[in-house]
């Protein structure tokens, strides 16, 4: 049992300042798996080290994706380590051999949580979801379901289910993204509207969106140049400059 602060300090540097210099990095398996099971920010930070052990040292973690799925809660769009988490989640969900039900569960949960996410997080997660559709075409039924969300009396997706295989995500539709098409932020509404069209084969580069902040969004809006809005369809030539102006018939400047 380590203090939470110490866990975070170690896990932040573990993947690049400790594991590469160990003769036997596999000695950290127990430490990282325990940290991964704690939950919250500690689990997010443990992902880096676990990824190295899985990718380079043949670590088998049968319930890895189930635990990764359980980390998706409303705080995921607000935490300090959001960029790190989504960078790794992008790697973990990149394999084309993942079952459709698993990827659909991630898409559906991310979309449901997006309903309460801030705009800067939405501008990152919507392209993230689009990339998942490009990698896993079997999940496109969530968007192109024949009956559509309008004919569903209720959403069959079970948000509280901890296991992706039991969440019934593939039976659902992506009505959450449809809702975001009416978002108050125009950039978010425009990003969500991409799913109304056929997606291109080329994936979106989300690396520049992972660190997007509310300040950057606000600064971008403030620096926009306002376009001149025409208020008249005829150019004015003085107070009584219009032809056949009823105002000029009754008043003069004498």
Describe, in plain words, how this protein is organized in 3D.
One of its GO terms (cellular component) is small-subunit processome. Belongs to the CBF/MAK21 family. InterPro entries: CCAAT-binding_factor, Noc4. This protein is mainly α. It has a domain at 98-224. Helix content is 46%, strand content 0%. It has helices at residues 4-18, 29-36, 40-56, 64-70, 82-92, 100-114, 119-135, 175-180, 186-192, 214-222, 246-250. The chain is elongated, with a radius of gyration of 25 Å. The model has no long low-confidence stretch (mean pLDDT 84).
Short structural summary:
By secondary structure, this protein is mainly alpha-helical. Helix content is 46%, strand content 0%. The model has no long low-confidence stretch (mean pLDDT 84).
């Amino acid at each position: 049992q380590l203090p939470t602060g110490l866990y975070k300090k170690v896990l932040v540097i573990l993947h690049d300042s400790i594991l590469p210099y160990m003769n036997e990095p596999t000695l950290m398996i127990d430490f990282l798996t325990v940290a991964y099971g704690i939950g919250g920010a500690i689990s997010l930070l443990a992902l880096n080290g676990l990824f190295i052990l899985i990718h380079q040292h043949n670590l088998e973690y049968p319930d890895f994706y189930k635990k990764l799925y359980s980390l998706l809660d409303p705080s995921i769009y607000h935490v300090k380590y959001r960029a790190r988490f989504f960078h790794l989640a992008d790697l973990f969900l990149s394999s084309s051999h993942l079952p459709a039900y698993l990827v659909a569960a991630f898409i559906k949960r991310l979309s449901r949580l997006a309903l309460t996410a801030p705009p800067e997080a939405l501008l990152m997660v919507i392209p993230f979801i689009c990339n998942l559709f490009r990698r896993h075409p079997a999940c496109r039924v969530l968007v192109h379901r024949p009956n559509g969300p309008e004919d569903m009396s209720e959403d069959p997706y079970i948000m509280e289910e901890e296991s992706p295989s039991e969440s019934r995500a593939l039976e659902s539709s992506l009505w959450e993204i449809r809702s975001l098409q009416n978002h108050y932020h125009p950039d978010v509404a425009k990003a969500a509207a991409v799913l109304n069209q056929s997606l291109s084969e080329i994936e979106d580069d989300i690396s520049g969106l992972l660190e997007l902040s509310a300040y950057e969004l606000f600064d971008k809006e403030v620096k926009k140049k306002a376009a001149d809005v025409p208020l008249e369809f005829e150019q004015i030539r003085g107070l009584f400059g219009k032809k056949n102006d009823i105002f000029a018939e009754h008043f003069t400047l004498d």
